């Protein structure tokens, strides 16, 4: 009985800590700041914008520019990583009006995803979102478990995806590679955004 109480306390502490790691809208705000910076300069600095404490990465795909922002936090006995990935096409990035509209869309979708993630983590209900989870067991030099969950809106709308992961390994977790289809672009890359600018 005492063992069960101790286990329940550990679980509640972990859940209490995980609530602070679910700031999806904060991460989405970082991605929209990156898009604004790209629209202004056409260049990827490789750094998080001012006021953004997350790590950021950028990837160029045929369907547009994808920006991922993520944070990794220590938790009792392991770590928690929350990541958000959003996309815009080149025409949106170079147009002030379209950029503002796309940024609002990203923030609205991020709010929906945040509500779904919190519901999943508290009562295992994805609400109006879709989600997929997997658990990995690691043995060898680093041992422990890693749990990853992807959450997205299945509405044929803009690419906005959340990854929520936590693990008990002692190694620092890697960036959220599941959200990338290719390699993130290195800093200093000039992006070819030569489309008609309707600002």
User: What number is the mean pLDDT?
Assistant: 81
Q: Rg, please?
A: 18 Å
Q: How much helicity do the residues have?
A: 25-40%
Helix and strand sequence? HHEEEEHHEEEE
Strand content: 25-35%
Work out the count of structural domains. Answer: 1
DSSP strand tally: 8
Separate helix tally: 4
Termini separation (Å)?
67 Å
Q: Globular, elongated, flat, extended or rod-shaped: what is the shape?
A: globular
Biggest sheet layout? 6 strands, antiparallel
Query: Which class best fits the helix and strand makeup?
Result: alpha+beta
User: Unreliable segments (pLDDT under 50, ≥5 consecutive)?
Assistant: 1-20
Spatial order of the strands forming the largest sheet: 2-3-4-7-6-5
What layout of secondary structure does this protein have?
Layout: H1 2-19, H2 24-41, E1 43-44, E2 55-61, E3 64-75, E4 78-88, H3 90-94, H4 96-123, E5 130-138, E6 144-152, E7 160-167, E8 189-190
Antiparallel strand pairs: 1-8, 2-3, 3-4, 4-7, 5-6, 6-7
């Amino acid at each position: 009985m005492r063992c069960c109480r101790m286990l329940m306390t550990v679980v509640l502490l972990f859940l209490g800590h995980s609530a602070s790691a679910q700031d999806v809208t904060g991460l989405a705000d970082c991605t929209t700041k990156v898009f604004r910076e790209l629209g202004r300069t056409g260049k990827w600095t490789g750094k998080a914008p001012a006021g953004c404490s997350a790590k950021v990465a950028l990837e160029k795909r045929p369907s547009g520019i994808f920006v991922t922002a993520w944070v990794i936090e220590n938790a009792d006995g392991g770590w928690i990583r929350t990541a958000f990935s959003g996309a815009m096409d080149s025409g949106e990035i170079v147009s002030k009006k379209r950029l503002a509209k796309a940024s609002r869309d990203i923030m609205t979708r991020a709010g929906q995803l945040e509500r779904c993630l919190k519901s999943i983590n508290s009562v295992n209900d994805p609400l109006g979102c879709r989600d997929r989870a997997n658990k990995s067991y690691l043995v060898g030099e680093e041992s422990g478990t890693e749990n990853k969950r992807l959450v997205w809106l299945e509405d044929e709308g803009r690419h906005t995806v959340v990854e929520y992961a936590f693990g008990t390994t002692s190694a620092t977790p890697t960036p959220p590679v599941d959200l990338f289809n290719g390699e993130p672009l290195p800093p200093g890359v000039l992006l070819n955004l030569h489309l008609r600018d309707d600002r």
